[in-house]
Design brief:
The structure is a single chain. The strands form 7 sheets. The chain has a 7-stranded parallel β-sheet with strand order 4-3-2-1-5-7-10. A 6-stranded mixed β-sheet has the order 12-11-17-22-24-25, sandwiched between helices. Strands 8-16-14 form a 3-stranded parallel β-sheet, with no helix packed on it. The protein has 15 helices and 25 strands. Helix 6 (188-198) packs across helix 7 (213-221) and helix 13 (396-405) packs antiparallel against helix 14 (412-423). It is α/β, with parallel strands linked by helices. The model has no long low-confidence stretch (mean pLDDT 95). It folds into 2 domains: 7-174, Glutaconate Coenzyme A-transferase (3-Layer(aba) Sandwich); 188-428, Glutaconate Coenzyme A-transferase, CATH 3.40.1080.20.
Length: 431
C-alpha cells in the first residue's frame, strides 16, 4: 500500500548533506520541489541532480538565499537553472547522457533520495514514471529512498520504467497535468533545412530526431515514406503523427521490432493521451536507448541533431555560447556514433546559417570557450537553409569549401579569407 503524506512531511526525509535527484522532462515533480524549497533555511549542502527539466518556471531552490542550502549540479542544463548557473551559483556536470546511469550505479554520483512524478498505480500495483524514464529509472534503482508524486493526470507509459508501490517510501497525492508544448508550423528557413534532410532519408530507416521546428519540417517531408522505425531519445508530436498514419510501423527494426522506443516525451495534450497505456510505444532507461552498440543494430539509422555553431573544419558546438553554458551534450554523441556504425546509417547536424540576431553560425573558429560536442572526426552531413553537404572523407580544406557553400551568402567572403589564411594553397587550388 502507498504511504500517503503531505509534501511537507515527505521532504522531511531529506537531511543536510544528502544527494537528491529530481526527475526531468515534463515529469518534473513541482509539488515536491516547492516543498523542499520551503525547507531551505533548515538545510545545508543538499546536492541536487537533475537533467532536461522542461518547465515554465525557474527552479524554486535556485535563489541566492539558498546558495548554501542547495548545491545544484545539472546533468543537462535547461531554462529552470540556466540563469542560476550563469550567475555562478550552480554548475553543470559534462557527461554523455547515455553514460550518466553508470555514474549513479557505480556510486560516482550517489543518490540518497529520488523524487519522481508517477501515474496512478495499475491493477498490479505498478506506477509508470510518466514522461521521463531516461535518468529516473537508474536514479530510483540506486536511491536509498524514493519519494513520489502520485499524479492523477500523469499518463501511464509502457516499457521498462515502472515502479511497484511497495518500493515507494513516501507518496504525495497531486493532480498536475504534464506541461503541454505546442509547436507552430516550421518557418521557411526550417522548412528548407528539413527538406534537404528529408531527401536523404530512405524508406525503412530507423529515426532518432529531436524537438522543434527543423525536426518537424523533416517529419513533414517524410510523411509518404514507408516502413520507418523509431528508436529515439525524445518522443514528440511529429513522430506520433507518423505513427498514427502508419508511416512509422517499426516493421524493419532489429531492436524491439514492432515497437516505437524512446526514453522521454514532451509535447501536446494529444500526444500524452496517445501514449497513455499504449503498448506499441515503450520507454526505457537512457543507458539502453542511447547505447551506440544497441543503436547500430537497427538498419539505416538516421540521427538528426542541432548545433549552436559549426567551424569550417566541422567541429560542432551544441552546449554553450562561448563561456556561457546553454545545455549539454545530451544524446547527440551517442546517436551520432551509433548512427555512423549502423548499416546504411546517416547522421545530420541541422542549423540555420545565422542566429535570429544575424550572427553567423558557420564560423572560422568556434567562439572562445565554446565546447566541442561532436568532433570533426564524427561529423557527416551538415544542413542549413542554403543546402546540405557531406564532410566525411573530405580533407580540412575541402570541408571548409563545402561548409562555406551553405553559409549565409553575406558571410562567405569572410569565411573564404579565413580559410585561405588557415589552409593556404590546399584551399586556393579547389575549384
Amino acid at each position: 500500500m502507498l504511504k500517503y503524506v503531505s509534501a511537507d512531511e515527505a521532504v522531511r526525509l531529506v537531511k543536510s548533506g544528502d544527494s537528491v535527484f529530481f526527475q526531468g522532462s515534463t515529469s518534473v515533480p513541482n509539488v515536491l520541489q516547492d516543498a523542499l524549497a520551503r525547507r531551505g533555511n533548515e538545510l545545508k549542502g543538499v546536492k541536487i541532480y537533475s537533467a532536461f527539466n522542461v518547465t515554465s518556471r525557474e527552479a524554486p531552490f535556485c535563489k541566492p538565499e539558498f546558495k548554501e542550502s542547495f548545491l545544484t549540479n545539472s546533468l543537462f542544463l535547461s531554462y529552470d537553472q540556466r540563469k542560476w548557473v550563469k550567475e555562478g551559483y550552480g554548475s553543470m556536470i559534462p557527461a554523455f547522457l547515455g553514460e550518466i546511469p553508470y555514474l549513479f550505479r557505480s556510486g560516482q554520483i550517489p543518490i540518497d533520495i529520488a523524487f519522481i512524478n508517477c501515474s496512478l498505480p495499475d491493477k498490479n500495483g505498478y506506477c509508470s514514471y510518466g514522461m521521463s524514464a531516461d535518468l529516473a529509472y537508474p536514479a530510483v534503482e540506486t536511491a536509498k529512498l524514493v519519494i513520489a508524486q502520485i499524479n492523477k493526470s500523469m499518463p501511464y507509459l509502457c516499457g521498462q520504467a515502472l515502479i511497484h508501490v511497495s518500493k515507494i517510501d513516501a507518496a504525495v497525492e497531486c493532480d498536475e497535468a504534464p506541461l503541454a508544448m505546442e509547436f507552430g508550423d516550421p518557418t521557411p528557413i526550417e522548412s528548407a533545412i528539413g527538406g534537404y534532410i528529408a531527401a536523404e532519408i530512405p524508406d525503412g530507416a530507423t529515426l532518432q530526431i529531436g524537438v522543434g521546428g527543423i525536426p518537424n519540417a523533416v517529419l513533414n517531408g517524410i510523411k509518404n515514406h514507408k516502413h520507418l522505425g523509431l528508436h529515439t531519445e525524445a518522443m514528440t508530436d511529429g513522430v506520433v503523427r507518423l505513427i498514427e498514419d502508419g508511416v512509422i510501423d517499426n516493421s524493419l527494426k532489429k531492436i524491439k521490432p514492432g515497437k516505437s522506443v524512446a526514453s522521454l516525451a514532451l509535447g501536446s495534450k494529444h500526444m500524452y493521451e496517445f501514449l497513455d497505456h499504449n503498448e506499441s510505444v515503450e520507454f526505457y532507461d537512457v543507458a539502453w536507448t542511447n547505447d551506440p552498440q544497441i543503436i547500430r543494430q537497427n538498419p539505416k539509422v538516421i540521427a538528426i541533431n542541432s548545433a549552436l555553431e559549426v567551424d569550417i573544419t566541422g567541429q560542432i558546438c551544441a552546449d554553450s555560447i562561448g563561456n556561457t553554458i546553454f545545455s549539454s551534450v545530451g544524446g547527440q554523441h551517442d546517436f551520432m556514433y551509433g548512427g555512423a556504425l549502423s548499416e546504411g546509417g546517416k547522421t545530420f547536424i541541422a542549423l540555420p546559417s545565422r542566429t535570429g540576431k544575424g550572427k553567423a553560425k558557420i564560423v572560422p573558429q568556434l567562439t572562445p570557450g565554446a565546447g566541442v560536442v561532436t568532433t570533426r572526426f564524427q561529423t557527416q552531413y551538415v544542413a542549413t537553409e542554403h543546402g546540405i553537404v557531406y564532410l566525411r572523407n573530405k580533407n580540412l580544406a575541402e570541408r571548409a569549401k563545402a561548409l562555406i557553400s551553405i553559409a549565409h551568402p553575406d558571410d562567405r567572403e569572410a569565411l573564404e579569407k579565413a580559410a585561405c589564411e588557415r589552409f593556404g594553397y590546399s584551399f586556393l587550388r579547389l575549384e
